[in-house]
Amino acid sequence: MSKFSKFMKANKVVRENTKYAATSSLVDPETGKPLEWELKPLTTQEVQRIQDECTVEVPTGKPNVFRTKMLTTKFVKKLICASVVVPNLYDAELQDSYDVKTPEELLEQLVDDPGEYNAFSMFVQKFNHLDKGLQDKVDEAKN
Question: I need a labelling partner for 143 at 20 to 30 A (CA). Which of 12, 86, 93, 137 fits?
C-alpha cells in the first residue's frame, strides 16, 4: 500500500450541485413558487482562470510601474455564470428572448432586482468557499 493512499483520488469527496431560487420574478406557472436554479461547485483551476480574466494592470503614476487590480464586479458576474448549470446562460435562444448576447448580460436581465442579485452573488461565493480568506478559516478553527 502506498504511503499516499489516503490522498488518492478515490478517497476525495465529490462536492454535489445545489439549488437556489435566485429571483422571485421567475416563477413556476403551476405552483407559483420561484424557479430553482442549479449550481455546480467550481474547481480551483476554473476560479483562477476567471481571476486572470478579471485582473488588469493599472499605472501607479510612476513611469513604467504598474500594479494589478481585480475587477471585482466582473469577477463575481463571471463566477456566477460559470457556476450556473440551469438555466443555461450560454443558450442562444434564452439570450435572444432577453435581447442580450452574453451570459453576463443575461444574468443581469434574469436577476434584475439589486437585492436579489446581491444575495445570489453572496450565495455563489459562499457555495464556492470564496467568502472567507485562509486566515479567517484558521482563526475559526482555533475557536
Answer: 12
